[in-house]
Amino acid sequence: MNNQHMQLNRWITVLILLPFISGCAGIVHKRFVQNFSKDRQETDGSFPSLIASLKYNDKKQFLAVGLESGQIEIWDINKPHSKIEIKAHEYPANMLSFTPDGHALFSGSKFEQSAKLWNVKTGELIQTIRKMKGPVSTTPDKNIYVVANGDYVSLYNLSRGIIYPEKYASGGLITVIASDDSSGLVAIGSESGTIEVWKYTENRGKKALVKVSSARPYSNGDWVVGLQFSPRGKSLYSIARFGSFSEWDPSTFEEKKSVPTVLKHIYSTAFYREKNILALAGTEEKPGLGSASVEVISLDTNESTVYRLNISLAMVEILPPLSSFIASQGKLTSVQKLPRKK
């Protein structure tokens, strides 16, 4: 009986503290937004200070910012004054990817032939990865990553710090990679408009990729700028540079749906997989000039909400703890609440 009373008291304490904890978290996140916005306002607005990429890890709640100067900033959204600055590259840091546990960050540049792996908490360099130029994605093996180098991908062993010799050619210069670890599927998109689906396999200790399907749904130059699998790899979503959103059967590449987007020139994408939400940043004019808009799309209903921002060339990322997206460029930052499901 005493144990039951003790357990009941614990639950009562938790229920009493829950609103307080939630309120404290809200205050901390508000301060993070204020400090991040202030930090951007205090930049000189020059080209090197512009944002080349944004990437968020929900496991540890870190936001990574890659700059045109090659510098990286890492923010802990629960610690408003936590910014770590790393001089990572000589060219724009436009390729960022967290390890799933959020402990480390891959960074790269389209203009360099090597990528780097950083300790997120300290900013210390863990590894330099030669012959790697492009995006990174995971596999069902927590030590094995798919890494791009121009127009092909290889498998990288994180614990051993080596790239396996096998090269898997793509249909063009690789722009984006997505994976679904539950199914072992890996999707690769390129500047040629080609999308390929591969499957990660292990046979007697040999790790490999096996091609499942491929298609070229977009024309050359209409780059694939976003890819994401639905849970368990049942569907693959793709975003094209000039304003097209599609859902595919990854095993056959049969198109399930195709939805034109309001944006006609897209240069940044973000998926919120748990809520099946997609955020796009770009312009409503095809040349990609002028102030940016952010378009938030429900992958379930295809409903679209457009936020018109006074920010040119904005980069976008979704921040689930804030139920918001963040769009930023130059001295300007906008944080907006995601639309509620109707």
| Category from helices, strands and their pairing | mainly beta
Instruction: Please give the largest β-sheet.
Output: 5 strands, antiparallel
Unreliable stretches (pLDDT < 50, length at least 5) are 8-24
Overall 3D shape: globular
Mean pLDDT: 90
Order of helices and strands: HEEEEEEEEEEEEEEEEEEEEEEEEEEEE
Count of β-strands: 28
Short description:
By secondary structure, the chain is mainly β. It is 12% helix and 49% strand.
Pick out its properties.
28 strands; 1 helix; mainly beta; five-stranded antiparallel β-sheet; globular
Report what the structure shows.
This protein is mostly beta strands. The chain has one helix at 2-41, and strands spanning 51-57, 62-67, 71-76, 84-87, 95-98, 104-108, 114-119, 125-130, 136-138, 144-149, 152-157, 162-163, 168-169, 174-180, 185-190, 195-203, 206-215, 224-229, 236-240, 244-248, 255-260, 265-272, 277-283, 291-298, 304-312, 315-319, 324-329, 332-337. Helices cover 12% and strands 49% of the residues. Strands 9, 10, 11, 12 and 13 form a five-stranded antiparallel beta sheet that branches. The protein is globular and about 55 Å long. Residues 8-24 have low confidence and may be disordered.
In terms of topology, how is this protein built?
Blueprint: H1 2-41, E1 51-57, E2 62-67, E3 71-76, E4 84-87, E5 95-98, E6 104-108, E7 114-119, E8 125-130, E9 136-138, E10 144-149, E11 152-157, E12 162-163, E13 168-169, E14 174-180, E15 185-190, E16 195-203, E17 206-215, E18 224-229, E19 236-240, E20 244-248, E21 255-260, E22 265-272, E23 277-283, E24 291-298, E25 304-312, E26 315-319, E27 324-329, E28 332-337
Antiparallel strand pairs: 1-2, 2-3, 3-4, 5-6, 6-7, 7-8, 9-10, 10-11, 11-12, 11-13, 14-15, 15-16, 16-17, 18-19, 19-20, 20-21, 22-23, 23-24, 24-25, 26-27, 27-28
